[in-house]
Amino acid sequence: DFYQDTESKYLFISRLQIALALLTVIAFLMVIYFNYMPLEKKLQDSFYELEKQDDNLRSLINSTRESIYFLNKSGKVLYFNKLGKETLLKRLGKELQVGDDFEQFLFIGMEDRFHDCFQKALNLQISEMEWQIVLEGKLVWYYFGFFPVLNEKSEVLGVSFIASNIQEKKQAALKNEAY
Fold first, then answer.
1. DSSP H or E run through 69
2. In what order do the strands lie in the sheet with 156-165?
3. CA torsion, points 148, 149, 153, 154, in degrees to nearest 10?
4. Which of 27, 41, 60, 121 has its CA 20 to 30 A from that of 75?
């Protein structure tokens, strides 16, 4: 009898130890779950907010009449708006991609001016110019702007290059001058 009672007690104690171990694991998992779920929710909310801000910024940039290109310090494309991509595709038949060297998309004859203004922008100087270029066999007025892009620490990240066809505006101004 003593042996059976002892064996039963050991069996009971071992089962009790297993149950306590399982309860400990469950309690530990519950602590993790309740402590980290709010953190995960905050991360999801932050990610959603970033996506919303990105969509808003993209919508704003795509609603302009200017072609906008963000180039890194080496002249590689980091970002561009929809009009910028469409304009280059129409003019050159090349599709602009992030990482492309922007030099391959320049108007013929503007390489030196581009490089000069690009370097100025890297040195925190804004350059803006109006220039006639040949487009589909015709002289067309364009506005070009080069702006330094800085981070919150005022470190130069690259250059914002803006291009805009101003032919109609220029023609209207010339007509007004004639009167």
1. strand 67-72
2. 77-80, 67-72, 156-165, 138-150, 127-135
3. 10
4. 60
